[in-house]
Amino acid sequence: MLAQEKYVSKLRGHRVLIFGGSSGVGLAVAEGVIEFGGHAIISSSQQSRVDQAVERLKSRYPNAKSSVAGSACNLLSPNLENSLHELFKKHGKVDHIIFTAGDSLYLPSIQDWSLDAIIDAGRVRFFAPLIVTKVGSQYLNPGPRSSITFTGAALTQKPRPGWAVTTAYASAMHGLVKALAIDLKPARVNVVDPFATRTEMWGDKTEAELEEIGKDIAKDTLTGIFAYAEDVAEAYLYTMKDANVTGTVIGTNSGWPLASRSAE
Ligand SMILES: NC(=O)c1ccc[n+]([C@@H]2O[C@H](COP(=O)([O-])OP(=O)(O)OC[C@H]3O[C@@H](n4cnc5c(N)ncnc54)[C@H](OP(=O)(O)O)[C@@H]3O)[C@@H](O)[C@H]2O)c1
Questions:
Q1: pLDDT tens-digit map of 11-34
Q2: pLDDT per residue as tens digits for the range 166-218
Q3: Cβ-contact 81, 51 below 8 angstroms
Q4: Atom of ligand 1 at shortest distance to CA of 49?
Q5: Distance in angstroms (rounded) separating the CA atoms of residues 126 and 237
Q6: Is the peptide bond preceding residue 257 cis, with omega within 30 degrees of 0?
Q7: With a 6 A CB cut-off, is 44 part of the ligand 1 pocket?
Q8: What domains can be seen in the chain, in order of their start residue?
Q9: Which of 15, 115, 117, 125 has minimal Cβ neighbours within 10 Å of its Cβ?
Q10: Rounded distance between C-alpha atoms, residue 247 and residue 178, angstroms
């Protein structure tokens, strides 16, 4: 270790609870936390998926086996507050909470909207973060080095036809983090808005199928790439490490909001 090292040590020993950590962006954040010397505690709705992800992390980082743990917590549970207290009591106080959990998307045409379905569409992505904040803030170590980071979506900047409900909930996160940054100060609260990223969210696809999807997506971006989870994860690692960033929306979107589709 370099004597003057001050950047790569910012997460050393930090405890990070990741909702949605069993796959995709959340799992990539867990990898980053471990590489920076922190402790990753991952959670999702299914214990088998959590166990698989924990094993994957332990085999990837054999020298950091004690830095990985995980437990299931279904964010759709009718007793969510109790489940969250159990989760935090089991794993103890944390320095950061990362929220990347997301269930399947609800994309009906306007005439097919119903109030119940609209509310259901927000349960994991909008209502659960509020309850996670209520409970999780009781287990967050005090001070400006601690943080909560939620997930929105780049489409808040350029809505697509048929995505109104999803866009509304993702946009609400922008106001929420500003308000919570005030309510929870000096702890910090931010949101990351990703664009299309190659994760399990795209379903059970082969590499070849993902490549084909990626080629189409890349035409809508400035960088010409279909993002990798390990790049998007940088945004969450940043919000944890920069003790100045709070009430902020961080975009990681391949330039999609600025791009117009390239010629076929
Ligand atoms: N990938 C993209 O292209 C993209 C683009 C823009 C925004 N986003 C947003 O970024 C976030 C992360 O996406 P991702 O690509 O990493 O998706 P992902 O790989 O599908 O991961 C979603 C995570 O959420 C968990 N989850 C789902 N339902 C849950 C529930 N009821 N309770 C607890 N955990 C639950 C899943 O685990 P279990 O199934 O085990 O519960 C999984 O760990 C999502 O909010 C997504 O909408 C993604």
A1: 999 999 999 999 999 999 999 999
A2: 999 999 999 999 999 999 999 999 999 999 999 999 988 898 999 999 999 99
A3: no
A4: 40
A5: 22
A6: no
A7: yes
A8: 15-200+229-258 (3.40.50.720)
A9: 115
A10: 4
